Prior knowledge:
Radius of gyration: 17 Å
Mean pLDDT: 75
Helix content: 10-25%
Oligomer: single chain
Number of strands: 6
Strand order of the largest sheet: 2-3-1-4
Strand content: 25-35%
Number of helices: 1
Amino acid sequence: MLAIISRHFFSANLLPSVLFSIASMSFNKPVKNLYARLGSKGPNFCFAGHLDVVPPGNLNDWTVNPFKPKVKNGHLVGRGANDMKSSIAAFVSAVSVFLNKNKKR
Length: 105
C-alpha cells in the first residue's frame, strides 16, 4: 500500500481518484489533512509532510522582514521559504513516476 498524508488539499487534484482512495482527516482543527491511499495490502509505504508555517516569532530575531522575503547569498529568506513545500511536490512526482513504471498491463 502506498499512502500520502499531507496537510491541506493542494495535491488531491494531482492524484488520480480512480487509483487513490482520498479522504479528509482532522487531527488538530481547523487544519485539514489529505490522506490518499493506493491499494489495501501491506506493507505500508507512506510519505508525510506539511505545507503550513509556524508563527514568525519575534520579528527582531529575523535578518529580513519575514513577510517580505529576500534573496541572500543565493537563498530565499522569509517566512515559510525553507520548509516542506518542495518535498511534498517531490512526493507527488515520485508517486507519478512509480505509477508510470508499474502500470498494470
